[in-house]
Amino acid sequence: MKRQISFGQALATVVGSVIGAGVFFKIGVITTQTGSSSMTIFVWVLAGIISIASGLTISEIAASLKINGAIKYLDYTYGRVWGFLFGWAQMIVYFPAQIGALSSIFGVQFVSLFGIEAKYANLVAILLVLFLLGINLIGTRFSSKMQSVITVLKIIPIALIIIWGMFNQNKIAAPLLPLTVGAGKSFSGAISQGLLSALFAFEGWIVVTNLANEVKNPERDLSRAIILGLSAITLIYILINYTFLTILPIHELVNNNNAAFEASMKLFGQFGGKLVTVGILISVYGAVNAFMLTGMRTPYILAQDNLLPFSEKIGKANIHTGVPVFGALIVDAIAIIMILLGNFTVLTDMLVFVMWIFNTMLSIAVIILRKREPELTRPFKVPWYPIIPLISIIGGIFIVVSTIINQFILSLIGIGLTLLGLPIYYYKQKQNRN
Fold this sequence. Notes:
This protein is mostly helical. Helix content is 76%, strand content 0%. The protein has helices at 7-18, 22-34, 37-64, 69-78, 80-113, 121-138, 140-166, 187-200, 218-247, 250-253, 259-268, 270-295, 297-304, 311-314, 325-341, 344-372, 387-406, 408-419, 421-433.
C-alpha cells in the first residue's frame, strides 16, 4: 500500500471515528446513572483520562514496531492467535455493527428531518452504506480527504452549541464540586455505570493503527494523531455536556434521548432543532466513513498472512487505488445484514467489552516489550512510565470486570463470538503447514 495519508488526514480519522452519535445521545443515559452534574462531568473527565492514557501507551508500540495495526502488535507480543482473534472480532462484529448502528441512526434522523415515513429509515441506512462504499472504492486518498472535510463540518454545530451556551444569560447552576451523586444512587455504582457509558462515546480511536503502513510518517504522525485527537475529543465532550447541564435542569436531561434537540431549541429557537439534526447527520456520516475507511483493512491484514478462507483474493488491494476491495465488501455486507436484523446496541456493547480486553492487552504489551526488548528503537516513549500505562491497564480491567458483573450474559456472548474464530484459525494453520 502507498504511504499517502498525511498527519491531518490521520488526525481527522481519529476524530471522525470517535465523534459520532454518542456526543448527542449519551447525556441522557449518564445523568440517569449519576443523578448529578458534578458526577456527570467527572465520568467524562475520567473516560478521557483513561482513553488518553491508552492512546499514549499504545502509541509507543505504534511508533516502535514497523508493522501495520493493532492486530500485528498483538501478534508480535503474544503470538499470532491473539492478533487473529482481535482481527476476527473486528471483522465479524465490531466494524459491521458500528457501521450498521450508525447508519441506522442516520436513517432515523434523515427521515425525521425530511418528514419521510419511518419505514424507509432502513432503506436510507443501506443506501448510505452503499454510497460510502462507492466513495471508498474510488481510493484511499479521496476518501481520507473527504474525511478531513466532514470532520471540520461535524465540529461546526458542536462548536455553535458550546459557544452560544457560554454566552447564555439564563444558565442553570451546574456545580462541579463537591462531587456528589443523585438520591438513591451509590457513589461506586454511579462511577462504574457512568464511566462505561462515557467510554462508549470514545470507542473507535484505535482503528487508526490499521492505517500505519499508509501514513506518510507513522513513527511521528500516528502517535501525534492519536494523542491530539483524543485530547481534543475529551475537551469537546466535557464542554458540550457542561453546556447541556447549564441549559436544561437535570431532571429534564435524565433518560432524555432528545436532550441535544431540546437544549438547542432553547438556545436557537425553532431553527435549533433542525440545526442539531443536521449536525447529527453530518457527525454520523463522518463516523460511518471513518469506520469504513479503517474497517476494510482488517480482513486485508488477516488475509495477508493467509489466515482467512480465500485469502488470495481478500489479501489483494486494487493496483490503481490501493483499496482492499474484498475487505470492504465483506465488512459492508455484514453491516447491511445487521441493519436488516436490527438490535445493534447489543452487538455494539458486546464488542466494546471485547475490544477493551484487547486494548488492555496492548497496554500491558508496552511493559512486556520494555523488559523483553530494551534495545528496541522507540521514536516515541510513553511519558511518566509506568504511571500512564498503569492508568490504562487499571482502567481497562475495571471496564472488563464491570461489564462481566453488570452484563454477564452479554459478556459471555461477546467472548463466544470472538472464540468462534479459533476453528478457522487452526484450520488455516494446518492448511498452511501442508
